[in-house]
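In this section we walk through a basic example: taking a raw amino acid sequence and producing a predicted 3D structure, encoded as discrete structure tokens. The instruction is simple. Fold the sequence below.
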Amino acid sequence: EIMPSLVGSEMCIRDRATGPLPGISGLSGQVSYDGQVADLSLTSRGGELVIPHLFKQPVPLTALDTELLIQHGVDGIRLSTQKLDVKSNTVTASGQLLFELPLDESSPEIDLRMDFSVTDIRPVKPLIPIAPVLPEAVGDWLSASILTGVVPKGEMVLRGALADFPYEDEAAGKGEFRVEFDIEQANLSYAPDWPGVEQVKG
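The resulting token sequence is shown next.
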């Protein structure tokens, strides 16, 4: 057994990122375990999400709510949820997660799909992905050029072995990392000596 039989036990978790695995602080909730499957009801208010290979700084978690199932099999540990609701500053996101942690030395596998919206893009500009996910020059340009904006809807997909991230050769079928979104009410400054562009929509 990976844990003793528990029903309705309360817990509090504080963790740091380890290798390719993210870290989440400030988690609390309840766990029940029937000898085969652990059912975790987790929340976070005022915690942080740390992904060193994706973001320069921790992501503040205004709120996080999820129902997580953990199953221990002969090949590894499987974590899944059909409910993953997250709020961070002006970002609201919801989605699904499947995470498999093999017992051998092979890489963990992830399948994360999130729909999101942003009411004000300014507080989340520090969360623009870093290299090698996004070239440093591109990230710096985006941070400096997008002055204001609203994202009514967007989608993020992260799928594949974490060891292969950021999946530069998607044609090889090793994984997928994709972020797509609409933007409205955007004010842009392309370059210091160029006139700005206002109320961009696309």
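Looking at the output, two observations stand out. Residues 1-14 have pLDDT under 50 and may be disordered. Residues 141 and 190 are 8 Å apart (CA to CA). In the next section we compare this with other chains.
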